[in-house]
């Protein structure tokens, strides 16, 4: 029904526990019913290292004041307009607008943590703190993660992170490919995919390729010049340099049967919209074999009307100036 030392102990309202009085209104819920944080706080016990939120909802550790994170419900711990310095001056940086103190490791890391962006005002960066993990841009504008060096994407404003002429190897050798001119390391999945990602095109130099990595959805051109998506095989468009993706003599079916038409000689699958459009897309002309594709309910139209309605009629024959179905 009560706690032993009432001056040092607080009993939770649901009587589930007695906790140290210092845990009362410290911003952390220690009672199951949260009653230790039911606080019409008038003052903080440890005034030298505690801050009382303006709405008197809690007392928080003074180190949490102006650290860029709202710990008070009303955000008053981040009301820092009159801040003159950071408490931990050796590992904190004060934003120029005095809105917050942030960890010094966030200074010049390429990400704006201060509202005014002053943590990325880095014209005089002389070195990076974590020299083994960071790369300093040549114009000293930022320190970036070393993994971003020579990855094919410019992260430095001056592009110096992609100045890779003297690169000898890629860091992640098991899943990266180094361009022959040493200009970049690219993801190995981009090697021989039909698209040049290296400036010198060396990622598409695939003469000695023996197989495609993703064998279940890739097709290797017969001249081993590239691996292309299997959906591009026998679609009527040559994607391989040697045209082998359209060598389709043994096509037994089209993958997208509702959207594709298979030429009668099985030489290709073409888009169904190319069927009976007046242009032969199949080598055997079977896409224009339209005897069974006649318009329904039309018996005769004039020769001039036949031109107007050509798309609807699709196939027929002209006799004596009339268009006969």
From TrEMBL:
Coiled coil: none annotated. CDD domains: LDLa. It is found in: Membrane. It is a single-pass membrane protein. It comes from the Eukaryota. One of its GO terms (cellular component) is receptor complex. Its main location: membrane. It holds the Pfam family Ldl_recept_a. GO terms for molecular function: low-density lipoprotein particle receptor activity. Gene3D superfamilies: Low-density Lipoprotein Receptor. Keywords: Disulfide bond, Glycoprotein, Membrane, Receptor, Repeat, Transmembrane, Transmembrane helix. This is Sortilin-related receptor.
